[in-house]
Design goal:
- This protein has 391 residues and is an alpha+beta fold.
- It folds into three domains: 3-29 and 172-245, no CATH class; 36-162, no CATH class; 258-390, Barnase, Chain D (2-Layer Sandwich).
- The protein is built from nine helices and 21 strands.
- Strands 1, 2, 3, 11, 12, 13, 14 and 15 form an eight-stranded antiparallel sheet that branches. Strands 5-8-7-6-9-10 form a six-stranded antiparallel β-barrel.
- The longest helix has 13 residues, at 269-281.
- It comes from Micromonospora musae.
């Protein structure tokens, strides 16, 4: 039995089953937002937006922020402060933005209509980007990328924006209706459950909130997977399904997990990201190792941000180990413990020159933020008390 449903409140097993239709979908993760064109209407550009138009500055900004500048109930002359809640809730962030054209706005106002290309950051603001906020204009901020950080620079104001607010496909659409295949126990009625992946040794690993199962049984049938087993159809969908190319990784962890280091090295960056996600679900919550333990990070394949987390996870916790998948969890594990190493540990980073060469400044089109550099990682680890040796 590969899977279990666990009651959300009690943790009791509702049923066990062999497989599940609707968990793995034919998609690539992480999802890339849609490439779109937007038009800033009746715009008074300044700063980097103005220099992009007159040709004295770059046309590419990195990210671009629009904040509501005037809100209902306030005089049109009164600008919202940055802390104004109405303005914050109307904020939109555009990613990887480039100026692609401009022209005089209608009415002879001397203002400009300015065309941009980029992506909308997935967020709940403004009903997921479908409804324009009730504001009377926007303040513009260009987010330049330099020296591993992002700086917001005022870029003018505009009265509106076209092309931004409309329906889009879900950034992470729920999976198809679920069928639990080869269940040991017949189900009826409704349930709210967590999904757990079961290894061959019987160890069960609960998954995240995005893989919960809330629904009701709609039909059952005898299963082809064994006598006395049933298939159960439920009116539930996985909120955040896994990618089809996740399945081989999960099968490997079910069989006991990776047996040697660097099996992730042949994967591309998207699949390395999936590797880290599988590693955190299947991690063993063992006590941190003694404070005098030294860890050896094999850096020969650390050619991107996700590769670093594959490598440091294995350095601390062995093949398939997890020691964070982003900067927040790297800090939590290094500075406060709980990830397998007592804070203040010694980390020997072999072949560190590979990461120094590949993890450089720029714009990361996976995170849509300034790239985390080798020097950034060295600084973060050192500041969190890690005794780091670069070799």
């Amino acid at each position: 039995m590969r899977w279990r449903l666990l009651d959300e409140e009690t943790g009791a097993t509702i049923t066990e089953y062999t497989d599940i239709d609707g968990l793995f979908v034919d998609r690539v993760f992480p999802h890339e937002p849609l490439h779109e064109r937007y038009t800033l209407l009746s715009c008074a550009p300044s700063g980097p937006l103005l220099t992009a138009i007159d040709g004295t500055g770059p046309t590419w900004f990195g990210n671009f922020v629009l904040e509501g500048a005037h809100v209902p109930g306030r005089p049109a002359s009164e600008r919202c402060e940055a802390s104004c809640q109405e303005c914050y809730e109307s904020m939109e962030e555009l990613l990887n933005v480039r100026v692609v054209g401009h022209r005089p706005a209608a009415g002879g106002s001397g203002l400009l209509d300015i065309d941009l290309e980029g992506h909308r950051r997935d967020s709940d603001n403004n009903r997921g980007g479908t409804i324009a906020p009730a504001v009377f204009g926007y303040r513009l901020l260009a987010c330049s990328t330099a020296n591993g950080s992002s700086e917001e620079t005022p870029a003018g104001e505009c009265r509106g924006i076209a092309g931004l607010f409309h329906e889009r496909p879900d950034s992470w659409p729920p999976g198809p209706p679920l069928t639990l295949l080869g269940c040991r126990r017949r189900l009826s009625g409704s349930f709210q459950a967590e999904l757990a992946h079961v290894r061959v040794d019987g160890t069960a690993h609960t998954m995240g909130w995005g893989q919960r199962v809330f629904g009701s049984v709609i039909a059952t049938r005898p299963s082809n997977l064994g006598d006395d087993l049933v298939d159960v159809m439920v009116d539930a969908r996985i909120p955040e399904p896994l990618a089809t190319n996740d399945r081989p990784l999960w099968d490997m962890w079910r069989a006991g997990g990776p047996t040697e280091p660097n099996l992730w090295a042949e994967l591309d960056r998207s699949d390395r990201y999936l590797w880290v996600r599988a590693a955190v679900v299947h991690r063993n919550h063992a006590p941190d190792k003694p404070a005098d333990t030294a860890y050896h990070l094999d850096g020969q394949y650390v050619t991107d941000f996700d590769a670093f987390f594959c490598a440091i996870g294995e350095a601390v916790n062995g093949p398939g180990g997890w020691f964070g998948g982003d900067l927040f969890w790297l800090h939590e594990n290094a500075a406060t413990g709980g990830g397998g190493a007592t804070p203040g540990f010694r980390l020997i980073w072999h072949n560190s020159e590979v990461a120094r060469t590949h993890l450089v400044s720029g714009y990361d089109r996976k995170s849509w933020l300034p790239a985390v550099t080798f020097d950034d990682l060295v600084r973060y680890l050192t500041e969190d008390g890690v005794q780091l040796e670069l070799r």
